[in-house]
């Protein structure tokens, strides 16, 4: 297996992604023609990053007539957690201000609550039992530290970003089950509509 990734706010998908793909294929000594499928992290996450990543994968799949596999980005992140005691896992991504994208899983990585967006407050996640430990992970979990400080909550600050390494077993399970996306109509899972504000002009 070959892996090349870069977690930084300065990373530019449009400038580096295709180079990374070529470098990984060369390092793995695998020709593109030998691929059986291509997997992509479908989101939630950065609007621009998801759009560029999915466009690149679609191009490869169309060109080589390959099936497309999509995996939830938060589920990929949760795979970094390997302990097996009863737990609620809360992988989170920053969604600006006090908002996060989050899903809830148990220690077996079974989805307890599918992906949703949450404005963090003392009322957040009250539907989950405090008798079972909660594990917050991902760079979005930093927003919780000033609000949640209880004995049943553990912060895994070492688990911040999803990795393609953890995506492999999830993607392979989908491949074996033939859970493929509709290549023509597949879109990233943005969770919320993209919006921007116009720049102010000088009077």
Content-based structural category: alpha/beta
- The CATH architecture name of the largest domain reads 2-Layer Sandwich
Strand content: 15-25%
Identify low-pLDDT runs. 194-203
Radius of gyration from CA coordinates: 18 Å
Strand order of the largest sheet: 5-4-3-6-7
Features:
Nucleotidyltransferase, domain 5; 5-stranded mixed beta sheet; two-stranded parallel sheet; 7 strands; disordered C terminus; alpha/beta; 203 residues; 4 helices
What is the structure about, briefly put?
By secondary structure, this protein is an alpha/beta fold. The protein is built from 4 helices and 7 strands. The protein has 2 domains: 13-73 and 162-176, ATPase, nucleotide binding domain (Nucleotidyltransferase, domain 5, 2-Layer Sandwich); 81-156, 2-Layer Sandwich (Nucleotidyltransferase, domain 5), CATH 3.30.420.
Characterization of the model:
The strands form 2 sheets. The chain has a 5-stranded mixed beta sheet with strand order 5-4-3-6-7. The chain contains 4 helices and 7 strands, in the order αβαβαβββββα. Mean pLDDT is 91; it is low at 194-203. Helix 1 (13-28) crosses helix 2. The protein has helices at residues 13-28, 47-64, 73-78, 164-176; strands at 38-43, 68-72, 88-94, 99-106, 111-119, 134-137, 153-156. The protein has 203 residues and is of the alpha/beta class. Strand 4 (99-106) and strand 5 form a beta hairpin. The N and C termini lie far apart (57 Å). It has 2 domains: 13-73 and 162-176, ATPase, nucleotide binding domain (Nucleotidyltransferase, domain 5); 81-156, Nucleotidyltransferase, domain 5 (2-Layer Sandwich). Helices cover 26% and strands 21% of the residues.
